[in-house]
User: Fold this.
Amino acid sequence: MRKIKTNDGSYTFLDSDIKEVYNPLYGAVKRANDVYVNQIDFAKYKKLRILDIGFGLGYNSLCVIEKCIQNNIKLEIFAIEKNSLILNEIESLVISQNLINSFDILKKGVKLKKLRTDNINFKLEVRNASNIVKNINDKFDVILLDPFSYVKNKELYGRKFLSDLKNLLDEEGFLVCHNSNPILLNNLIENKYNIKKYKIKEYEYGVIASSFLKLKLGEKDEKLAKAFGDDFKIDGKQFKYDEI
Ligand SMILES: C[S@@+](CC[C@H](N)C(=O)[O-])C[C@H]1O[C@@H](n2cnc3c(N)ncnc32)[C@H](O)[C@@H]1O
Assistant:
C-alpha cells in the first residue's frame, strides 16, 4: 500500500496488488461528495439508513456523517469492507478541520466495529459483501456501492449480488454507484431496477437505481446495456457477458 495525497488535500492509497487507487487523485473527499453524498436529498430525511459497500478508507460514510450532523438527521450506517489492511490505514489519515468531528466518530466506529451515540448508529462488518448481503435483515434508504473497476472487482457488479441488494432497499430507497458500464446497467435492468445515469465529470457517469423511484435510462444506453446482456456461445456453450 502506498499513501498518496490527492488534489483536495485528502489522502488515498495505491493498492499494489490490485493496481488501483482507493479514491481518485483529484480528491478523495471531493469524490465522496460529488459522486455519492450529493445524490442524497438530506432535506427529505429525519432518519437516514445507509449501506456503505466497499467502505475502504470510509470517505463516503465520513461525508454522510458530516451532512447528517449539519442537518440534525439521525443516522444508521451499515458498512462492509473485506480488506482489514485498508481499515488499519484510517487512523493515519489527515482530515481537514471542517470534518474533524465526523472523523472522530468514524475512527471510533471503525475501531470498535459498532458505535451508538444519540444520533448515530454505526456498524462495520469486515467480510466479503457478496457472502453477507443476502443475510441482512435491515432495510436501507440509500446503498452506496463503491467497487474498484469492473475488471478488478466483478463480484460487486454481479447479477445475483444486485438482486440481493434490491431486497435491502426500502420502498423509496435507491442505490448509487460511481460506474455505469453496460454490464452493470444490464444486470440492474435484468433485476428490474429503474435506473438513470448522472454526470460526474466529462465522460464519466454514475448510476442511480431503485425499484420504486421513476428513473429512466436513455434509449441509447438501454440498447447498449441490452446488447451486453445477450447470451452468446463459446464452443457450443451458452454464456452471458458477466459470466466470463
Ligand atoms: C474503490 S474502493 C472504495 C473506497 C471507499 N469507499 C472510500 O471511501 O475510501 C473499493 C473498496 O471495495 C472493497 N471491496 C472490494 N470487493 C469487496 C467485497 N466483495 N466485499 C467487501 N468489500 C469489497 C475494497 O477492498 C475497497 O476498499
